[in-house]
Amino acid sequence: VRNSNMAIFSKPLSVNPTCYELGHCWTPYCHKASTDIASHVFKESLKIYGTLYLVAGILRKRGLNYYVKKFVPETIRSSLFLTINGTLFISMFCIWRYIFGFYLFYNAYICGIPACIVSILIEQKQRRGALAVYLTNLAIETGYRMLVERKIVSPVRNGEVYLFSAVSAVYLYLFRKKDGLGDATQSLFKFIMGSDECPQTLPTLLSEKSAATSGREHRHDHLIDSSRTTKSYQDSYSHRGSRSSLEVDVRKSQGGSIFGDKSSSGGSLGEDETSSAGSLAGDETSSGGSLVGDESLSGVSFVGDETSSGGSLLRDETSSLGSLAGEEETSTESLESSSSRPRGSKALLSSSTSSSLQATIYMILQKLPLLSSLVGGVKEQLRPVLRSFEQLPRHKCCHHNHSCISYVLKGGAKMFTLGYVVQSMINSLSVASRILKKPSTLKNTWFSKLNLKLAAFLGGYCAVFRAVNCILRWIRNKDSELHGCIAGALAGLSLRFYRSITIALYTATKLMEILYFKGIHFYGFPYIKSADIFIYAFSTAFILHAAVLEPHTLRPGYWKFLLRVTNNRFAFMNRKLLDVFGVNSSKIQPDYWPDYEPGFSTLTRNNS
After folding, report:
1. Fewest CB atoms less than 10 Å from the CB: which of 58, 140, 315, 603?
2. CA-based end-to-end distance of the chain
């Protein structure tokens, strides 16, 4: 099997059905097929982008001026981008058959590249990099599924967990390093992990804590000496103070970032504004639609692929948390303004972004009286216990206010609660119609064990990171950025509670962008002009190739997205004619055969 499959790539075969017999089987007319696709994609795109930009505008508290002058043009432009992507693809499919008279194994890929290049040029520049990263992630996942399907590689048990662990080690090392991450990415990690491990805010935190604790007369031998720690901190980072001045405006000197108009050193996890809601590269938004998720609203997740009954928050693209929170503006700032900004203002920007995100979430929670009273009651019951934990010792190198145990428990509990509440809210929205008919369903939804998956992941991710940092400070009697690397690797194992190859691949792809961007800044890596355009085109063309010949290897949510925006036209292809290539093209619909119009085809199920 392996040899025959590998032969497919080295010696492609050809088939010669008409474009009607193979592709647009619902109509024998090429122009009608193209207009059908254009009409359906444009209508669905307006729904997707209209809702997306509306929600983004509300969360960013944009004024009336935005909705009057920018909302409609942005929605139409993004909708045209997606429409042209789909329409040109099927048109190129017909043009190829008209010119050459046959189809090759790689025809969908060849036809997809020019269609994707033209369409991405229509989209807003600040979104191209995000789309390129997202589609690269999806293409890698699809390629891996192809290799598994061909039995060339075997799946690694918990492989996505180990990948995420390795990626987290690098991310959280950079998080603990001065100017290691861009503002938007730093803000996201500060929201999850807290600001006590973040070097940009440590001097301020230390001075505040010094004032708050100066009146205490008895403390443990290992309690922090604020003045000594502040000096130690300043000394440890002073040798890197000049490094930030070396940062230059790459967009100015070389024309942009490797993936488009990025500003901070490496982009961010959260700046992929609407990355997934578009491009035939968009995400599944069917049946009520997640805005930026791969599944329907009932399957939205952090970047997860699993779609338990109600789904989960942070899908693809961390987009639903990050991009809607407003990182688009951050991604369009110049590097020069970022690096030349006073250090305090950079920390302030990250802090304000994180604070606004927290404020939005808490505002939503406050509007739910039952939930608010429940949380308040739990806090009152736990307050004496928490106070007793706060009196326990902390190491002199720790920068948090209270004991190490209190620090770990508070962080883990906060993110666990957030994960549980958000998952429950999304699950409730996914079954809203059932709740209206039968209100008792709400109780079952909120107390479902499925809500614990995201909660355990986020809570464990934060708690393990904090705990390992504190433990290493106690063991080594000093603080170090390398602690973030070790803590990140161990914290990343918490993905075991919420396994998702999508999270792992997306964060890995984004990390590659960040590191390459840093290489451009500091090590003279080559800058590739318009790289975002070509990366998007090649990645999306590969995914369209898979959608034609091997749809069973696509992420299920993305396949549903393609069916939604094309009104199921993608499913109407006669993939029985492609089985000759040996990749089991008709696996997803083994019994389907088109009802051809008489006079336009002589094919029958038996003579094919």
Report:
1. 58
2. 23
What is the mean pLDDT of the segment spanning 562-582?
A: 91
Residue 495: its pLDDT value, please?
94
Under a CB-based contact definition with an 8 Å cutoff, are residues 177 and 266 in contact?
no
Question: Above 50 in pLDDT, residue 327?
Answer: no
- Judged against a pLDDT cut of 80, whether residue 231 lies above it is answered with no
Kindly report the pTM of this predicted structure: 0.69
pLDDT over 80 (residue 118) = yes
Q: Find, among 138, 256, 36, the residue nearest to 536 by Cα.
A: 138
Residue 562, phi then psi, degrees to nearest 5: -60, -40
User: If DSSP codes are grouped into helix, strand and coil, which group holds residue 477?
Assistant: coil
Could you write out the three-class secondary structure of 92-124? Answer: HHHHHHHHHCCEECCHHHHHHHHHHHHHHHHCC
Q: What percent of the chain has pLDDT over 90?
A: 34
pLDDT value at 239 more than 50 = no
**In 214-290, alpha helices (H):** 226-238, 250-254
Cα distance between residue 569 and residue 86, in whole Å: 11
Please state the separation of Cα 505 from the chain's center in Å.
9
Which tokens in the block code for residue 559?
């396949």
Question: What was the pLDDT predicted at 377?
Answer: 64
Please give the Cα distance from 495 to 181 (Å, whole number).
22
- CA-wise closest residue to 133 among 285, 330, 319: 319
* N residues, the chain: 608
Pairing of strands 14-15, 103-104: antiparallel
Burial (Cβ within 10 Å: 0-12, 13-18, ≥19) of residue 493: middle
